[in-house]
From TrEMBL:
This is Putative tick serpins 36. InterPro entries: Serpin_dom (IPR023796), Serpin_fam (IPR000215), Serpin_sf (IPR036186), Serpin_sf_1 (IPR042178), Serpin_sf_2 (IPR042185). One of its GO terms (molecular function) is serine-type endopeptidase inhibitor activity. Residues 1-214 form the Serpin domain. Its main location: secreted. Gene3D superfamilies: Alpha-1-antitrypsin, domain 1 (2.30.39.10), Antithrombin, subunit I, domain 2 (3.30.497.10). It is found in: Secreted. It holds the Pfam family Serpin. Belongs to the serpin family.
Length: 216
């Protein structure tokens, strides 16, 4: 068994005020509704709209400026998130980030605890990596003489998102609005979305979460 675990921890550069966190509606991909804690902040964020994927994208920086979270939200509420994922690549993310401009934004973002355990054996075998899982495997360099082969490879990823940072609708529904007469762009994450953790100097995507269902 090979276990690969990744955990990212980062505080937001500008943290959310817990007093503004409220229970609000999140519409899951299957049409069901969950009432979940949603954080709120008005701040200047880098924002872009991508016509090709038809998504709005927002960059939320961490205190360590080398990292940021990129949020992607389909403009069409009926659009399946899978179509966005299919058109996504590190280069595409770079294009979107490079096109961003600073905007005053009202951001509503659910608190999240995302955990995923993936069994990779089947995927790797489909890609042609089969020998390590058979009796022909040769791990003598690391097994101290023991005759070993791989049984499974597990990949576990975890990401917690709250007011401090990341640790890696009915007609009567109330919405946060600004009391100011100044108009802010709204980025309301109340439906399936993508959250990516990006290393800014290299453009590497360290983590990507496809959030399609939330539980109350």
């Amino acid at each position: 068994l090979v276990l690969n675990a990744m955990y990212f921890k980062g505080d937001w550069k500008t943290q959310f005020d817990p007093e503004f966190t409220d229970s609000r509606v999140f519409r899951n991909y299957d049409g069901t509704i969950a009432r979940v804690p949603i954080m709120f902040i008005i701040h200047t964020f880098n924002f872009a709209h991508d016509d090709e994927l038809n998504v709005d994208a927002l960059q939320v920086p961490y205190a360590d400026d080398q990292y940021s979270m990129i949020l992607m939200l389909p403009r069409n509420r009926q659009s399946p998130l899978a179509s966005v994922v299919q058109g996504l690549s590190a280069q595409k993310v770079k294009e979107i980030v490079d096109s961003m401009e600073p905007e005053e934004v009202e951001l509503s973002l659910p608190k999240m605890n995302v955990q995923k355990l993936l069994k990779l054996r089947g995927i790797l075998e489909q890609l042609g990596l089969k020998v390590p899982f058979t009796d022909a495997a040769d791990f003598q360099g690391i097994s101290k003489g023991q005759d070993l082969r791989l049984n499974e490879i597990l990949h576990k990823a975890a990401m917690d998102v709250d007011e401090k940072g990341t640790r890696a609708v009915a007609a009567t529904e109330a919405q946060f609005v600004s009391k100011s007469l100044v108009h802010f762009k709204q980025f309301i994450v109340d439906r399936p979305f993508l959250a990516l953790i990006r290393h800014e100097p290299t453009g590497a995507i360290l983590f990507i979460a496809q959030i399609v269902t939330m539980q109350a």
